Amino acid sequence: MSTDIKTESFKRKQLKKLGLKFDNWDYMVALAGNPNTGKSTVFNALTGLRQHTGNWPGKTVSRAEGAFDYKNNRFKLVDLPGTYSLLSTSEDEEIARNFILFGQPDVTVIVVDATRLERNLNLTLQILEITNKVVICLNLMDEAKRKGIEIDITALSEELGVPVIDTVARYEKGFDELLSSIHEVAAGNTNIETSPDIEIPKELKIPVNDLVKDMEELYPELPNKKWLAIRLLEGDKRIEEALCSGELLDLNKSFNQPHLNLDEELKLLNSTEANHD
Amino acid sequence: MSPLTNLEEGKSSTIKEIDNNMQRAERRRLLDLGIYPGVSIRNCFNSASGGSKAYEVLGTVIALRKEQAEKIYLRES
């Protein structure tokens, strides 16, 4: 077992951990997942960092950012707060949701706890409603095995319509496959289809399409209009307010501004730290 | 119908439904925490004040206030 693990991390010569050097990236990858699924372990293993906190546009809530190089492509990795949902109104959930909606990452890696699959699929489905550029990192597979849990990975991947990679992040097991999947999805080389179960019910299609048309006229620059339309029909007050007040438009703008380079980012970080003292 | 507040410490049961008066954000929150019909739930411990209790659901322990737990109904065993 232990020799297996060693070979595994030796094999991964195609990975270069870039730490904080996340300027000039080719692809942006978001890391999402429930709390305590090993998200930070994945983040640290890929970037070589031990968590770095930065600033969200307009807010002083911590997130982690880092970078890695895989097969000569530079990836910026953004570790989102661990949440059970994207639909409730806690600050953490809004940060995760806004990033996936407006940051429009090239790939969203969802770290899923294999020992609590049912609980974790809630967030997974909510993310798949927004984007299908997703790779599922089915983590804690060693604990699942110990508990006698067996998961049909092929069936899960077919049901969800996206790649599912089983991993043990603590030992970087399965990371070759994970990296190659992230690369494939980022480069658009995989045939990802949305599962029919994630599509909206027939009865909702007309009202959703009507709202999307209205939004195309009013807010042409906003991405993910279909998702926003569903929230409005649900009576989501927070989204309604944020849309009408222009908050969502501002958020979208702030995500699409030219990116700060490392010096600017560090300056920003230092000034925030100074404020805390 | 038996509300979740009646579940004794250490005992498990299955969720039957959430009260229809719980709507939108409040209902969504419970669903996101794993509280929905058919799910098994266990009362892990009661707080000294009796206000909130800890429940294990889908492999995670969550705390619910009395006001919320009263509106979650269990299957008759």
State the low-pLDDT regions of chain B, or none: none
pLDDT under 50 segments of chain A (min length 5)?
A: 52-61
DSSP strand content of chain B: 35-45%
Helix content of chain B: 10-25%
Secondary structure tally: strands of chain A: 7
Radius of gyration of chain A: 19 Å
Determine the number of helices of chain A (DSSP H or I, runs of at least 4 residues).
12
Outline:
The complex is a heterodimer of chains A (277) and B (77). Helices cover 48% and strands 15% of the residues of chain A.
Q: Can you walk through the features of this model?
A:
The complex is a heterodimer of chains A (277) and B (77). Chain A is an alpha/beta fold and 277 residues long. Chain A has helices at residues 2-11, 39-47, 91-103, 117-130, 141-146, 153-160, 175-187, 202-218, 225-234, 237-244, 247-255, 262-276; strands at residues 15-19, 27-33, 64-70, 73-79, 107-113, 134-139, 164-166. A seven-stranded mixed beta sheet of chain A has the order 1-3-4-2-5-6-7, sandwiched between helices. The N and C termini of chain A lie far apart (48 Å). Chain B has 77 residues and is of the alpha+beta class. Chain B has helices spanning 24-32, 66-69, and strands at residues 2-3, 12-18, 40-46, 52-57, 60-65, 72-74. Chain B is 17% helix and 40% strand. The A-B interface holds A 84-85, 87-89, 115-116, 118-119, 122, 234-238 and B 24-25, 28-29, 31-34, 58-60.
